[in-house]
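Most newcomers find our protein records easier to grasp once they have seen one. Nothing more is needed to start thinking about how sequence determines fold. Here is such a record, shown just as it appears in the course material:
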Amino acid sequence: MASLIGAAREAVGGEVDLAVDCHWHYAVEAATRLCRALEPLKLLWIEDPVPADDAVRTGEVQRRVATAIATGENHYFRRDFDLLLDAARLRIIAPDPQKVGIWSAKRIADLADARYANLALHNSSGPIGTVASAHLAASIPNSLALEWHAASVPFFDDVLKTGPLIEKGRIAMNDRPGWSVEFYEEVANRYRDHGFFE
């Protein structure tokens, strides 16, 4: 695994931020060994090396390694993030605004900011959810990154009246009211049975 991720680092170079998602596949010892093997690669974070519902075990891994451990996309309550910040002492948490709600996500950001931790917002939604998450990220001082999982959805930008949402890895913010995005309802309806916009 370390050699595969090392090849990715070599391919993108040292100037590109690189993070790894382990999808809860490891126990504490194996996660620790992997994280230590990856330390020379200067990763931005390693996400979910152990099951995310166990703040104690996540904290064990974080205390043993230098690279930041991130988790949180499957948590719904502020109390869960309190545990990740206090018991696990995480430096990066990853709430999903569509799961916790925009207002709760803002309050979670405040909890993290008070503990000098950053947010890497999880985002597996369509264009409107992505814009909402971008607005949230722009409004908090400890925003590190906004994930985007729709790169393989060929019609993601077809739904929007305003053209491509993401250009060169960035979302342009503007001063229009609301989420400041208009979309073609008929296009969204055409694809809704596929589960991308529900």
Q: What stands out?
A: DSSP finds eight helices and eight strands in the chain. Residues 135 and 177 are 11 Å apart (CA to CA). Helices lie at 2-12, 28-38, 55-64, 78-86, 97-100, 102-114, 127-139, 185-191. The first helix runs from residue 2 to 12.
